[in-house]
Amino acid sequence: MRLLIPVLGLDVRVQPMGWHPVEDAQDVRTQWDVPDFAAGHHIDSAFPGERGNVVISGHNNMGGAVFASLSTIGEPGNPLALGDEIIVEDALGRRFIYRLTSWRRFPEANASVALRRENASYLLPTDFPQLTLITCWPPESNTHRVIITGALTEIRTP
Given the DSSP bridges, would you call strands 52-57 and 129-137 parallel, antiparallel or unpaired? Predict the structure, then answer.
């Protein structure tokens, strides 16, 4: 699988991604195993073109920083905007075209358990075909999450 965002010149490989449990002073939570030098398709999320939420994560400042250009959405010089095309291409060459419908940046570091659970609602299944891209911000750390969502508008076959 590949993720392409033409306005950013982004073309990155996407591979399956899982998670593992992590215990801290507040509770036990899960930590994603985001791949290096690729984006990660959450193994419990939908596949492109299906009804449901296709969730893909990528690093913003390490491991190849494949989502660095996504993390600065909304900042001067970043051209990514509502309505822009986001393409997920599968192994058969089918292209699933999503249009950017929303984005949000919110604190994650030192967040309460309740806030982390609320933030995790972006990972939940949907009744419609949706794409959710996840990365961190700012470029020099990982204190915030950036969530970008898109709605499926077209499927192009080779």
Answer: parallel
